[in-house]
């Protein structure tokens, strides 16, 4: 059977002044009907550029200058935009990484799926509606009649991703391109999406080009793997061969950087003093008004956590479990409804905003997206010294400490004069960590701080967190949905579901013998359990 997609010696140029002349160079791979081909590599490897070239979605300054792309035998390179519009949605479709930015916020889910049918078919309104409902049912979304009337913000992350898949599959395309579709999802939702894509592929014979940096996902679904580095294919082959017997040093490095689900051996800190203490912490949101039924959501229910000096405690759970709500309450970015939040015995839970100055100094937070955390108009130096100066240090003292902290996070001091856009994602996260350390906090919160990073960069940042925790004897509260990460960096873990703590204890003990049914379900959903035998130490 002929291949659905054939990419042959594709070369795509970058604008003058880029770090290399070509985004992808001499790249060749293919996708057969009913086959899932995973393209893996670090950020900047060219994997997404090759997919965007297939879809005809390259920005104007980036151009395909050589090679061939054939969709079911039809040459696409050089095809007019009108032809691409005919093919997109009908014969090839794409699922993007972030559904909230890919979906139109002012149109219902039903309207957005129906739009594809209006453009590419002669169906009447009733036929289109029936097809929309059928497609929504195929991706296992509950209550299709309600989903078609819902707006994107009214759905969970997993539901939005399913809705986007429904739109992509409305016309049974021969090729489906999935660009990091599960990166930001928790393990149970990720498992559902992977199962859904595999089922649709099997049922409809769709060829799937799956772009990811997660080798657990690769192990779970891939038939073949293409490994890219700096715009070139360095290795490709059957998934089992590449994962178990990688030939290229780069592939070996990537697989070696995958954190293991076997928890690292960590020294007991039972005798260390408790730095952070929460007791019966609650956060309740209510909505509704005069003409609407009142709705009350308990985002956090009676959460009690202790973190000792020099200890890392992780909070794990699905999206909506309340883990980030707890982190924001602890940092007093939002006000808790009730309960205690104490650092070294001083309770900050009920202090008004004007009296939280000392709490702000003693408690710092590192967020998931470093680019959004840094002001793009301010240099690294300006961003870093602000907190120290606000807490009384002179500009000279603050600059001296900023330089020392850049040394600590393994960045050159010349970085102080540069802007956020001049750094990679991993480098920006290092800057955010250094900035959080400027006021010399006692508690550091990392809220999904490595979830968007490549496995190799992730391993480096995890080691950095461990180095910093040990050097400064910090109490580290680590929020994550990645069980592999939790296994390697956390002394103890707290498992949350629907706002409540269902289990907590020593990481090794919980991984070896989880007690709660929800914890067992989380572990069962982790993809590629046999991948990753290198422990971060």
Describe what this molecule looks like in 3D.
This protein is of the alpha/beta class and 537 residues long. The chain has 2 domains: 193 residues, Rossmann fold (3-Layer(aba) Sandwich); 252 residues, P-loop containing nucleotide triphosphate hydrolases (Rossmann fold). Helices cover 37% and strands 24% of the residues. It is built from 21 helices and 20 strands. A 6-stranded mixed β-sheet has the order 6-7-8-3-9-10, with helices on both faces. α16 packs across α17. The mean pLDDT is 90.
- Percent of residues in helices comes to 25-40%
Shape: globular
Q: Catalogue the unreliable spans.
A: none
The helix/strand class is alpha/beta
Number of helices: 21
Instruction: List the domain count as a whole number.
Output: 2
Corresponding CATH architecture of the largest domain: 3-Layer(aba) Sandwich
What's the level 1 CATH class of the largest domain?
Alpha Beta
The CATH topology assignment of the largest domain is Rossmann fold
Q: How large is the radius of gyration?
A: 25 Å
CATH superfamily of the largest domain: P-loop containing nucleotide triphosphate hydrolases
**Strand segment tally:** 20
Percent of residues in beta strands: 15-25%
Strand order of the largest sheet: 6-7-8-3-9-10
């Amino acid at each position: 059977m002929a291949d659905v997609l054939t990419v042959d010696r594709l070369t795509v140029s970058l604008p003058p002044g880029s770090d290399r002349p070509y985004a992808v160079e001499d790249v060749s791979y293919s996708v057969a009907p009913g086959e899932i081909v995973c393209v893996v590599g670090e950020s900047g490897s060219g994997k997404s550029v090759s997919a965007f070239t297939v879809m005809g979605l390259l920005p104007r300054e980036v151009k395909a200058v050589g090679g061939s792309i054939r969709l079911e035998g039809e040459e696409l390179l050089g095809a007019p935009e009108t032809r691409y519009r005919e093919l997109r949605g009908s014969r090839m479709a794409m699922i993007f990484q972030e559904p909230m930015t890919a979906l139109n916020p002012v149109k219902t889910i039903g309207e957005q799926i129906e739009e594809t049918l209006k453009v590419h078919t002669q169906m009447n309104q009733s036929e289109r509606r029936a097809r929309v409902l059928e497609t929504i049912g195929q991706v296992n979304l509950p209550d299709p009649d309600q989903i078609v009337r819902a707006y994107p913000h009214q759905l969970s992350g997993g539901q939005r991703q399913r809705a986007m898949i429904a739109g992509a599959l409305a016309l049974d395309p021969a090729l489906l391109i999935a660009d990091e579709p599960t990166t930001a999802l928790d393990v149970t939702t990720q498992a559902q999406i992977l199962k859904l894509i595999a089922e649709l592929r099997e049922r409809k014979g769709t060829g799937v080009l799956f772009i990811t940096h997660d080798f657990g996902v690769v192990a779970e679904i891939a038939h073949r793997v293409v490994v890219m580095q700096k715009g070139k294919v360095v290795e490709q082959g059957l998934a089992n061969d590449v994962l178990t017997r990688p030939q290229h040093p780069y592939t070996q490095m990537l697989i070696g950087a995958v954190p293991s689900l076997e928890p690292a051996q960590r020294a007991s800190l039972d005798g260390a003093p408790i730095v952070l203490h929460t007791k019966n912490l609650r956060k309740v949101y209510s909505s509704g008004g005069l003409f609407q039924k009142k709705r009350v959501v308990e985002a956090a229910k009676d959460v009690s956590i202790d973190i000792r000096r020099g200890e890392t405690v992780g909070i794990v759970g699905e999206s909506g479990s309340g883990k980030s709500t707890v982190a924001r309450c602890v940092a007093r970015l939002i006000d808790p409804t009730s309960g205690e939040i104490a650092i070294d015995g001083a309770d900050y839970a009920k202090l008004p905003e004007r009296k939280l100055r000392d709490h702000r100094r003693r408690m710092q937070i590192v967020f998931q997206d470093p680019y959004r955390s840094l002001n793009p108009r301010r240099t690294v130096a300006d961003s870093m010294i602000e907190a120290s100066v606000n807490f009384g240090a002179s500009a000279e003292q603050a600059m001296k400490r900023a330089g020392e902290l850049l040394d600590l996070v393994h960045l050159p001091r010349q970085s102080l004069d540069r802007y956020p856009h001049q750094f990679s994602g991993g480098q920006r996260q290092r800057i955010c960590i250094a900035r959080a350390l400027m006021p010399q906090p006692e508690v550091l919160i990392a809220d999904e701080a490595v979830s968007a990073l490549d496995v190799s960069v992730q391993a480096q940042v995890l080691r950095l967190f461990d180095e910093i925790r040990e050097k400064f004897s910090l109490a580290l509260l680590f929020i994550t949905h990645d069980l592999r990460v939790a296994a390697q960096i956390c002394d103890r873990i707290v498992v949350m579901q629907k706002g409540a703590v269902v289990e907590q204890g020593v990481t090794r003990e919980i991984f070896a013998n989880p007690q709660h049914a929800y914890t067992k379900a989380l572990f069962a959903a982790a993809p590629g359990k046999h991948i990753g035998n290198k422990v971060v130490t």
